[in-house]
Amino acid sequence: MRSLRRFDYFNAKSVEEAASILAKYRGKAWPIAGGTDLLTILRFQPLPEESYPEILVNLKTIEPGIEYIREEDGVLKIGALARLEDIAKNPLVREKYTALAEACSRAASPHLREMGTIGGNICQITRCWYFRKEDNRFYCLRKGPGGKAWALMGDNRYHSIFGCAKLDIPEPCVYGCPNDTNIPLIMKKVKVGNIEEAAEVLLDVNPIPFVTGRVCPHRCEEQCSRNILDEPLAIRAIERFLGDYILENADKMMKPPETSVGKKVAIIGAGPAGLTAAYYLRKLGYEVTIFEREGSAGGVLRYGIPPFRLPKDIVEKIGEIFRDRLGINFKFNTTVGRDTSLKEIMTNFDAVFLAIGAWKEIMMRIPGEELIENGLDFLKKVNTSSLEKIGKKVVVIGGGNVAIDVARVLLRLGAEPTIIYRRTEREMPALKEGVRAAVEEGVKFEFLTQPIRAERKDGKIILTCIKMRLGPPDETGRPAPIPVEGSEFELECDAIIKAVGEVPDLTFIPPEFLDEKGKLKCDETGYVGGNLFAGGDVVTGPATVIEAIAAGRRAAASIDKFLTSRGDPEKKPSVEVRLERVDVSSLKKMARISIPELLPTDRIKSLEVEDILGISFEEATKEAQRCLNCGCVMAHPSDVAPALIVLGANIVTNKRMIPIEKFFTASGLKSTILEPDEMVIEIQVPAPKPGTKSKFMKFALRESIDFPIANCAALVRCKDGVIEDVKVCLNAVAPIPYRATRVEEHVKGKKVDERLIEEAAEKIVEEANPLPYNKYKVSIVKALIKRTVLACIQ
User: Fold this and answer.
1) What local confidence, expressed as pLDDT, does residue 217 receive?
2) CA 699, CA 709: separation in Å to the nearest integer?
């Protein structure tokens, strides 16, 4: 048998005491009243481990109690702990607030009505079975970042028929992107052929998508919900298409600022982080100057990525656009620490952003290491056409992206590369697609191999290695490689290139900006000290281009806030729910487009020809049709909510009064806008005007037992046979209670007529957006609206 999770238990004596415990535990304390919903959660454990409470706060012990039902000054006041059964039987409620009494009488089962409270009913957590499946079987969107849209693609017979809720939790693809790119919005625009607007959305967060569309590791695709259904959306291919569109239309897409803020910012380093910061600071009106030690812009894009992955003419265009179109100044062939000092730049500029990357090689500390060339130095020579003859047999040491790039370049130069790596292929930090391409092209691999010595003999280099085995995890979380005694062997080669990692060169940084370990003192905003900021690989060590872009964008915002104080203040996330239509056609299995790619035998013939090609407009729009636009389609389960909405109730908490229509949301584990230390104290319902009638009806699989398939509350006031006022609210049909405003508009001000009500009910059919397995709910809702409204006027 299942048992409840362990938790502490606190009997609150007052509302203030309960609120103080809720505030102290910051979301890890849950209030309990009837417990009919919460105890089920604690027993079947459908949530991620970190989501459960550490303590339950018992509200039943609050004195004086909050179980009252009374009318004062024309307002019905119901304590949050009033039982549903008591409300349903209360004569006053039955007579004047009929819809509420009927809703309480139909909520769940008789047993639950005896225990359940009105506060608990309106605050209950989603009833979606993907969400509630025991042992967290389905990690869905509502459970946290990285959750998938299971219900969209699975059994959705009980779910929303009015679209999906966009949550304050990022969609799976956005969660996978270090730069928080709004991929669903981009896909929505590409889907309908609105390429310019899609490109603008992309450009808002990424000034070089024509680069990332080629070299990004596309972790967004790894997170895509379509992985459950068939294959992930080809996000990077669409990004490349949009990036190339931006490049071709740079004159209209990348414009200089219209105004100037009159301040100057220096950026040290013209790599992806520096270029990104320069772009967004320039767009904000700053005068920007980039100091770069090389003769061209791009950093690792220009000197560290081979041209068959990123053509150099594209990188050259970045410098041209930034200089000629945006008015960004470049000082090339300028090394800070030699040609000028950091302190001098800090004095001459209002702010400085340090984005020098990580180019200093890590030493292996083995005998003969002077015979081994550094991988980034090798790639730089290739990219600047300064490479001398390399030899036929070349050993590449390392398992990261640089090692893979070096080996693939060597193949194209006619060499026979062998990569040696001290762990197995599974532990290689290199991107899987890079490893796959290297294998296809003929790169050889020696896994579980560690070099221990290099020496020159008879014009060759002899690399002595030892075999390794995997032991327990080390500080990186990967299995530690352990030497196998007596397994030494030799490899004869013409050259050895190592790619075992790089670190930033901070020798020119004044000591006051370094910590005791010699690293930059840098906070999460990129601030170092004085007017100095830093970001990208110089802070994190070697990372991806998209991570550098994200760092540059953050730095630009931090610098702008530092210099003008106009940065966005800390905002609470929006609690307003956006319901968006679900494109049902995207929910079926659909083949992913085929990304054009040269054959391996053709790829290795040239360093300059791209091995992966772009897609067409038709292919981009076709692929965007596969985007699910992930959102939550759970059906809000409360029976009481629609009755309170048509009656115009207000929710009184320990902090404020909330109009009932603002009370509900779809936000992670929450279905209300309540803050962690906030709880419902009272529900206030204004007395209906004379001549007003309200009714509630519900459709469930079993009468008066189950949660609703759909329910409906209506309020109607007539005068002389004309409908003066009407409110209709549905629930269990969308992630939040759903006002049928088109129904209301159709009948308001018109003479009461059954045919009119039937026409109005038909309006709900026009706006419905049913999922593949719940079209039947539309007919149920139509019938419920008709019956409920007619019951109010008969």
Assistant:
1) 95
2) 6
